[in-house]
Write the structure tokens for this entry.
Amino acid sequence: MDISFEYNSFVIKSSLIKMKKISLILTVMLLWLSITRINAQEKSKKIGFYGGFGLNLSTGYTYISLQPGLIYHWTEKFKLGAGVQYTYLKSNKSYYGVNYTYHIYGFNTMALYYPIKQLEVSAEFEDLYVNQNFNTVQQKFWSPALFAGLGYHYGPVVAGFKFNFLYDKYKSIYQDAFIPFIRIYF
């Protein structure tokens, strides 16, 4: 049986373009909702923040990551979120034998559902622009991800796993399709 990869990649690329547009529209809508709320007390109950931060500084290696986001409490069981992220990663040749630098910029949108108070079911689209310098070779590319996740919610913290349906071991910035996560809401 002969399968045309060009057709499949075109369908996937056009679907990703549609998802990027939808995610951008959802991000703008969420930001608009957070800005245009009139009642400050009601706003503080409906809008929350989440985020992530990563830092690793060692000899010959630097990793810094920031991921702030807004979350809109649509109902008690359903929430929508949007965020941005930046990651800087650098390794020096003298220590690891290779010299590479990454600058990764991106955005994400997510929907969260709580069938019970302690269980978080999530769907998330993330699109990251990667600027990679590996020794003397530079590459720039987009790395999209479509996640479905399941997490345990305890207080302001959720810990769980998510699966990337768009994972490609040659193009994804993630090492595996299954990714553990921890979210902190404040």
About this structure: The domain at 5-185 is CATH 2.40.160 (Porin). The helical segments are 5-36, 40-46, 93-96. The beta strands are 47-58, 61-73, 78-91, 100-116, 119-134, 137-154, 157-164, 178-185.
